[in-house]
């Protein structure tokens, strides 16, 4: 059976320079580029010669650069999709974490609110999850006979995993799949056609 292989983008400048994430468009660090090469080597060794593969990526620079490095190892064209971006942080894009914390909209409660809009012109979690589900339904319908590599962001990867497990929006209030930079997650099905998380946030390709 075909798998969906998710790769969280590697270390980006926003991880080390106090910039906010979301739609802030930062490149990989030197370490991030080395991490992406390690991922490419691992995926190249694991790829079956008789299987079909396709490679998708968010168009934000940190994901696109990770995908480009991996693509050279796999000899695949990168298909960029804007819907694979991290959550839209609206006016906070391009700002520091300090600015974002100071300008975040006040919350009505302390829990997870699917309809809370943290920043003007940004997305709510409900809107973000709907976008991710729409994107993945389209990709899966189009490519489900192939193994699908997807390079994306931490929040998006968590929501793709929730989509695969058929979470309703309300279910993401109480559960979340948290990965890390350069982690590999493998989604598939068993012989009962149940949806399975075969591997989550594998970082064994990085030295200790």
UniProtKB/TrEMBL annotation:
One GO cellular component term of this record is:
cytoplasm
Name the residues annotated as catalytic in the UniProt entry: 9 (tele-phosphohistidine intermediate), 86 (proton donor/acceptor)
Gene3D superfamilies per the record? Answer: Phosphoglycerate mutase-like
Molecular function (Gene Ontology), one example:
phosphatase activity
InterPro entries xref list = His_Pase_superF_clade-1, His_PPase_superfam, PGM_Phosphatase
SMART domains assigned to the protein according to its UniProt record, in alphabetical order: PGAM (SM00855)
Which residues of the sequence carry a binding annotation for substrate? 62, 97
Endpoints of the signal sequence: none
Protein name in UniProt: Histidine phosphatase family protein
């Amino acid at each position: 059976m075909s798998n969906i292989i998710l790769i969280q983008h590697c270390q980006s400048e926003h991880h080390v320079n106090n910039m906010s994430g979301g739609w802030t468009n930062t490149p990989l660090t030197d370490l991030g580029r080395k991490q992406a090469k390690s991922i490419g080597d691992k995926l190249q060794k694991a790829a079956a010669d008789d299987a079909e593969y396709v490679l998708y990526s968010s168009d934000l620079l940190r994901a696109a650069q990770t995908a480009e490095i991996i693509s050279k190892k796999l000899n695949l064209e990168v298909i960029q999709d804007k819907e694979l971006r991290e959550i839209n942080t609206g006016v906070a894009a391009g700002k520091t974490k300090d600015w974002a914390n100071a300008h975040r909209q006040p919350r009505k409660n302390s829990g997870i609110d699917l309809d809370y809009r943290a920043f003007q012109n940004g997305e709510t979690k409900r809107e973000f999850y709907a976008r991710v589900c729409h994107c993945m339904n389209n990709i899966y319908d189009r490519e489900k006979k192939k193994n699908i590599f997807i390079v994306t962001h931490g929040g998006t990867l968590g929501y793709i995993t929730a989509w695969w497990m058929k979470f309703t929006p309300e279910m993401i209030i109480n559960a979340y799949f948290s990965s890390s930079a350069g982690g590999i997650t493998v989604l598939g099905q068993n012989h009962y056609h149940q949806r399975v998380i075969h591997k989550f946030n594998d970082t064994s390709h990085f030295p200790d």
